[in-house]
Amino acid sequence: MTGLDKVVAITGASSGIGEATAVELASRGAAVVLGARRTDRLEVLARKIRDDGGRADLLDVDVTRRADLERLVTRAVDRFGRLDVLVANAGVARIAPVSDLDVDDWDAMIDVNLRGVLHGIAAALPVFRAQGRGHFVTTVSTSGLKIVPAQAVYAGTKNAVRTLLEALRQESTDGVLRTTSISPGFVRTELVDHVEDPAQREQAQQAMAALGIGPDAVARAIAFAIEQPDDVEIGDLTIRPTRQG
Predict the structure, then answer these.
(1) Per-residue pLDDT tens for 167-200?
(2) What three-state secondary structure class fits 238?
(3) Domain extents for the chain?
(4) Which are the catalytic amino acids?
(5) What phi, psi does 143 have (nearest 5°)?
(6) GO molecular function: any one (predicted)?
(7) 29 in helix, strand or coil?
(8) Structural fold of domain 7-239
(9) Positive or negative torsion for Cα 244, 139, 117, 49
(10) Which helix (H) or strand (E) element contains residue 10?
């Protein structure tokens, strides 16, 4: 185990990028506080980390509820004495043309992808300010960089988060706060498994299977950003397969 002496809270930690990030950071010495709705998976993950000599705690977290993010931050501080990094990774994707008017899906993406990040900022920022340092890392997406049909609202939420973090960065040039946006391309995760339209779901799953890189690649990028000295900020990282267009 290496010497990454950080306390890191991670949302969406029960699978995919969040799970891989927890394993990667814990293997480097960080204490991780895992948040997600599927606590059964979190318990398995936390046990694995502890069995490998790492430090982990867990909490049921629904990022659409502001109080859950407050509890996650409080748990980190109570359990490990501080919170150095919040990795806002929870996200949902619904793929459909705007003309389908899937308003419920729009609301779900706005609530999780955007409002969930805002809830994390609201919970952690006062702690970071009181400590004199802190780091927000947010999983965005290449969908916000290359706009394609059927992803308008999903890409819109991701671009909103990218804009939010850049504005927060510009408001926080006193050396206390760091912000990092990670934009993954095709990564082998469960993100598209809940797309309702069967044809679009199959198409997305096939693309992910054919092109997708492992979530551990994104986890290493997150670790890279976190491990920088406090006076160095990695603002944006794009991580995608070499064959992705």
Answers:
(1) 999 999 999 999 999 999 989 876 666 666 677 6
(2) strand
(3) 7-239
(4) 154
(5) -60, -25
(6) oxidoreductase activity, acting on the CH-OH group of donors, NAD or NADP as acceptor
(7) coil
(8) Rossmann fold (3.40.50)
(9) positive
(10) strand 7-11
